[in-house]
Specification:
The protein is mainly α. It contains 14 helices and no strands.
Length: 278
Amino acid sequence: MSSTAQAVGFSFVERLAQDLRDERLELPAFPEAVLRIQRALQSPDTSTDDVVRILSSEPALAARLLRMANSAEFRRTETNITDLRTAVARMGFNMVRSIAVAFAMRQLRRKDTYSPTAQLQLEQAWEESLATSATCFVITKRFTRLNPDQALLVGLLHILGRLYIIMRSKDAPELSDVDMRQIIEGWHATIGKAILESWGLPEELQHAVEHQDELDVEQDGNVSMTDVLLAAKLLAKGETDGTKFPALRRLGVAAKDGASPMAAHEDEVRSVRASLSE
């Protein structure tokens, strides 16, 4: 890492630490309704009605939640849901958070206030987030007893550290493209974990985000969300070798006779991804 990238990387982390101390860690340029939902979900006392009131202030976000609640992959009943309260109650707060974050990222990539490099990085982060979250959801649903909704959430949120750096890069115009890539590579997991911690998300999700780049490291204990996130990232890269990548083997999605068992669920992954990106 160049001296410039290293210095700015430390500056990002120092700013992040200050934001944490001030209890005001929020991603700049996220829609206000999404930030309000995030703040509300940090409190254990938040009710379904509280979330509905916030959603009602952003019609486009509310419409996305209703579409997701009635989509083939996420509907919990045969009856169409037509009101927000029922949608929130049936989908749960994890799904509301996921839909809100996906909505925010979709809005963010449409802004024209970022440099061409930052715009490209935002687009890449968006595409990776969609692919990873959909794969996390299906892996968890088909190959584990873990919570698929939490898996979808960690798949979406694993790029938060990268988003933070990209958004803050407007304050450091001296950075070159190479410097930005180095900062993202060196700091995004640490920053992402800190954001999830400040949001009060479970330690299991924090651990997954913090260790998301340890693709060839054997994890301890039972199959976890860290395994799910690692496997989803590997499959997105076309990696299926369970002897080289333990997470694939632990989840049972490593290649057998040249093909991963996930190949049978490709249509489901595409459907989940399409639901998130609409």
